[in-house]
Amino acid sequence: MLDVLVIGAGLAGLTAARVLTRAGRRVRVLEAAGVGGRLTTRVVDGYTLDAGYQVIFPAYPALRRHLDFGALDLVQIPSAAVIRWGARAEVLGDPLRDPGSLPGSLTSRALTLGDKLRVARLVAQLRAPSPHSLLNGPDETTESYLRRQGFSEGAIDAFFRPFFGGIFLRRDLGASARLFRYYFRMLVDGGTALPRRGVGEIPAQLARDLDVTTGVRVTRLLPHPENGHVTAVTSAGEIDARSVIVATDPGTAQALTGEPVSRGSLGSTYLYYASATALDRQPRLLLNAEDGLINNAQWVSNVIPERAPAGEHLLTVSVLGLPDLDDDSLDARVRGELSRWYGAGAGGLRTLGIERIHHAQYPQPPEYAATLPGHATGLPGVLLASEVTASSSIQGAMESGEKAAAILLGDLSGMSRPRGA
Ligand SMILES: Cc1cc2nc3c(=O)[nH]c(=O)nc-3n(C[C@H](O)[C@H](O)[C@H](O)COP(=O)(O)OP(=O)(O)OC[C@H]3O[C@@H](n4cnc5c(N)ncnc54)[C@H](O)[C@@H]3O)c2cc1C
User: How high is the pLDDT of residue 155?
Assistant: First the structure.
């Protein structure tokens, strides 16, 4: 009999399975779709498309513990952004990491001199404590925290809203200031990066040497406390294990365990465009400072040319939420906004695909962490491993997988690691 059955091959499930397999347990992962959960990559007409636009924070402690960065071939994204007001664009960045951003940063209209000094003060303040301690302490919305720091209206609207909107998947800066401080620190420590061959390389690396069966959906869990095992009813029959780790999305985890673990969903929408001409040579993240559907965009092929066929260009546009528009109307509206950036050249863009992700993250308002579930469930022998026990992030999902595995192994050092470490 299996020691542990893991349900779901996202980052939480794969990390749990990896820790347990390395500790000598007999582990199998059952996955309803393909390996990776929310981190997948596909090739369309020779373009390598990640599901959505998701960057990696190389400073995430859990990533560093489990992944071989060399084999991932991480490509650093410039530590700067381009703020766009229609045709007008301004580069803003960390001149130490991206010297090319210096002239724009010095003359910036979005950030006043006072704002630049406040950024420097924030870097100094948030660099000193351990990263995980930033997830503790007083909480409030990110917007109220930034205002208390004295940032100008212009800086909040033109930079923080679209930049952190792209991370929290909400532009209102209503997410927890603790999380803001943690992400800010991750940015200071390691910037952002993309695996050259796509974000799907991350789960693929974690899954190597694991027993993973894809295309099998688990529909029910039947614990047998009298003989110490659990039966999982699946689309391919029944399977028994001594323990089960439920590592699905929170909604499915709630249905399988009967525990009220779901914390709701933030959806987001992505449009992928191909271009035969270079409309923009910019490798930096593009932020829309105006009202509109576009929150941010990235010429992915300007960072990683191999993501597009030779001589071609790939643009990914992020729209926050799930607009109530059919694909054609959404595409037309986004093209309209892009034509304000690029003029008639935007007419030459070819739409490669539109993707609506219904559960991209769960909302994380102030004090959200105090409301999160633990790993135990009411079903004997069944544990939870998911972003929903930690934070809606790559770090949170992996850390949750590690802790569920540590509980089964009775590993006190793994269990006592603080959130975010
Ligand atoms: C567009 C987007 C942008 C994001 N941006 C960031 C970011 O900038 N930084 C960051 O850190 N995080 C970001 N995230 C969040 C991060 O990707 C997730 O928090 C994390 O990947 C969740 O991992 P998980 O293992 O908990 O869940 P999932 O990845 O959802 O994995 C769950 C798995 O369970 C499987 N499953 C479900 N039901 C069943 C069943 N009944 N039987 C078998 N298998 C089942 C699913 O198919 C899936 O593979 C983003 C996510 C998205 C989608």
Answer: 94
Predicted confidence at residue 415, as pLDDT, reads: 86
CA distance 356 to 83: 25
Radius of gyration of the chain (CA): 22
For a ligand 1 pocket test, name from 361, 362, 386, 398 the mutation site with the most ligand atoms within 8 angstroms of its C-beta: 361
Distance CA 33, CA 31 (A): 6
Query: Which residues are CB-neighbours of 5 under 8 A, at least 6 positions away?
Result: 27, 28, 29, 30, 230, 232, 239, 241, 243, 244, 245
Give the mutation target among 182, 194, 249 for probing the ligand 1 site: most ligand atoms within 8 A of CB. 249
pLDDT at 96: 66
Q: Which residue minimizes the CA distance to atom 48 of ligand 1? A: 37
Residue 146 near residue 173, CB atoms below 8 Å: yes
32 annotated as belonging to a binding site for a ligand = yes
Does ligand 1 lie within 6 Å of residue 394's CB atom? yes
| C-alpha–C-alpha distance, residues 277 and 273, integer Å | 12
pLDDT averaged over consecutive 10-residue blocks of the chain (421 residues)? Answer: 98 98 98 98 97 97 97 94 94 76 73 90 95 95 98 95 97 98 96 97 98 98 95 98 98 97 97 97 96 98 98 98 98 98 96 98 96 96 97 98 97 87 96
Q: Specify the pLDDT at position 97.
A: 75
pLDDT at 95: 67
Please work out whether the CB of residue 31 comes within 6 Å of at least one atom of ligand 1.
Answer: yes
Residue-wise pLDDT tens digits, 253-282: 999 999 999 999 999 999 999 999 999 999
- The protein residue with its alpha carbon nearest to ligand 1, atom 9, reads 393
CA 164 to chain centre: 12
268 contacts: CB under 8 Å, gap ≥ 6: 52, 169, 318, 319, 320, 321, 322, 357, 360
Q: Is 240:226 a contact under the CB 8 Å cutoff?
A: no
- Pocket lining: 110 vs ligand 1, CB cutoff 6 Å: no
354 lines ligand 1 (CB under 6 A): no
* Biggest alpha carbon–alpha carbon distance for the chain: 71
In ligand 1, the atom with minimum distance to the C-alpha of 60 is: 11
Give the count of alpha carbons within 13 A of 211, CB side only: 13
